[in-house]
Amino acid sequence: MRLPLAVLVSFSVVFGSCSPAPDPEQNRLTFFEHLGHTGLKFNWRNLTCPTCKALFVILDIALLSDTNEEHVARTAGEVCIRLHLAEERVCRSITELFREDFIRALQRSLLLPREACALLVGPSCGKYDIYAPWNVTLPGIPKPPVTPPSPPKPGSPQSRILFLTDIHWDQEYTAGTTADCKEPLCCRKDSGFPSWRRREAGYWGTYGKCDLPLRTVENLLENVAAAGAWDWVYWTGDIPAHNIWSQTRTQQLSELTVISRLIHKHLGPKVKVYPAVGNHESTPVNSFPPPFIHGNRSSSWLYNTMAEEWSPWLSEQAVTTLRHGGFYTMEIQPGLRVVSLNMNFCAPENFWLLVNSTDPADQLQWLVHVLQESELKGEKVHIIGHIPPGLCLSSWSWNYYHIINRYESTVTGQFFGHTHMDEFEMFFDEADKTRPFGVAFIAPSITTYVDLNPGYRVYYVDGNYKGSSRLVLDHETYILNLTEANHSPGSGKPVQDPKWELLYRAREAYALPSLFPADLDTLIQTFVKDDRFFQKFWYFKHKGHVSEPCKDACKTTEICLLRSGLQEDLGKCTGHHGFVKKLIRSTRKIVC
User: Fold this and answer.
1) Beta-ladder partners of 159
2) Strands 472-479 and 455-462
3) From CA 434, how far away is CA 439, in angstroms rounded?
4) Which residues contact 351 (CB under 8 A, 6 or more apart)?
5) What CA–CA distance (Å, rounded) separates 259 from 211?
6) Is 71 one of the annotated binding-site residues?
7) How far is residue 20's CA from residue 34's CA, in Å, rounded to a whole number?
8) How far apart are the first and last CA of the chain?
9) What keywords is this UniProt entry annotated with (predicted)?
10) Quick check: 327 and 342 in contact, CB under 8 A?
11) Residue 28 contacts by C-beta under 8 Å, 6 or more apart in sequence?
12) Sign of CA dihedral 349, 86, 181, 196
């Protein structure tokens, strides 16, 4: 199996993952479940099983020739154009950009024609188990008794943590261009200028399919520098814009370098920044080969530059594992450690996982080792990453959940981004499914993509003293109100130096004693009973820019989604009036 899968995976990754999120209607989320959301008219299930297998055998043979690979790319481009998946320029560029990596990954995969047809036509045509369940090995050391967390004594020290995610800087952003173009990303030099009744790109940013100009990123950094002091910073990736059809390695590395140095410049040399790798850092987007892939197709071009730019913040050992697989661990303070995971090794859109999806880079087994060592030393651990665990491949998500449950007394914070929204995922004990033991906090994006205000997060964590829980006590979300920033009162011109304003404080807004897992579980129950609180959450989730309330089936499904950090549990949310498709597409926005 070679060509059709290459073409289809490319369409699913490019035009599926850059759109709102896929439906979790089956327990196993694979790359190809995204195909239903791309608008493709062709249905593989209309093929008979023998026809499908014959087609894949023929194409397997065809791809033995490099010349035929050229035909494959051209054919994929034509299919993209004829099915109106994107504008012609985007279709041709994206198929050429993705061509070589896709084909190399698929040539190393183990899929046979019968497996491909089982996947595309149905289980009656064969067996497809490339994502079969797998388990990491936990040590034989018994889990320590769990002590429910209690609030710190009044006056206890707190750590103030700046959290940045999903910058998505667009070098081609141009004020005055059209904000509702036909391409996946607008407000750019080649987007054209708006005609009557079409919106135009604002100076500081735009509600629409647009990313941010560099001036807005610099304004953010100036504002957070003035709002210090910060104990440290978590930064969970996604630097480049969503122009994924026209990116180059040179461009990606340049943007990585510029943003890393700007953060260092504005926050100063004394503030430690702990980064994580986003799925947009690579090109093609989502392309993260496991470490056993060597040479030009490996990720060493990216990890090595990250290591160079981030070395002022990271230890020598952290830089070593970063170069190896894009993950690392470091002691932040005595008694507190950070683990930065490369969540691209769990992502359904990472086509390199076709080669091997079983604990890529042995990252989760490494995590177990780190957590066991921390448990023995009495350390607390914060985990940071880009993609939330509930959006990962099923087996990876289950193993991660299992690990966090085992080390719940050690892992006291989980911090992610990626969805561009302000939300969270709950973790419940595997034995007592009514006992909440953890929370994955998902912070809002800096970018406006799609129809959002720019935003950032501040966490207040139990501080640096003996016996500290290191748990999240409270958090704040700040936004740049684009309506006000782009139109100064009186003149109507952009504000020269806009200020980012507090949108809300979590404990104050929701009348909570703390943000411990039990408190957030109680909050979800309040959402069910008191619609005012839920609509407030809905407003905050969209960073203060939402067009309509979330009622009835929308609310039921949204609450269901908050209740689990486990991917396979998301399927349980699909029974609510069949609404999950629309909700997830429109509100969970898992963008590339």
Assistant:
1) 461
2) antiparallel
3) 14
4) 9, 13, 31, 101, 102, 105, 106, 286, 287
5) 15
6) no
7) 10
8) 25
9) Disulfide bond, Glycoprotein, Glycosidase, Hydrolase, Lipid droplet, Lipid metabolism, Lysosome, Metal-binding, Phosphoprotein, Secreted, Signal, Zinc
10) yes
11) 131, 393, 394, 568
12) negative
Q: Is 576 annotated as a binding residue?
A: no
Q: The tokens of 352 are what? A: 């390199």
Structure-block tokens of residue 563: 């209740």
Structure tokens at 557: 């499904």
pLDDT in tens, 327-342: 999 999 999 999 999 9
Taking residue 432's Cβ as centre, other Cβ atoms within 10 Å add up to: 9
C-alpha 450/C-alpha 452 separation (Å) is 6
Give pLDDT tens digits for 37-79: 333 333 444 557 887 777 667 656 665 566 566 666 676 677 6
**Rounded to an integer, what distance in angstroms lies between the CA atom of residue 150 and that of residue 356?**
43
The SS3 assignment for 164 reads strand
Question: CA 369 to CA 578: how far, in whole Å?
Answer: 42
Q: Please say whether the structural domain 158-173+211-591 has been given the CATH code 1.10.3660.10.
A: no
Q: Where are the domains of the chain?
A: 6-121, 158-173+211-591
pTM: 0.86
What residue type is assigned to position 404 of the chain? I
Alpha helices in 63-193 (DSSP H): 66-82, 88-108, 113-120
166 annotated ligand-binding residue:
yes
**8 A C-beta contact, residue 362 and residue 291:** no
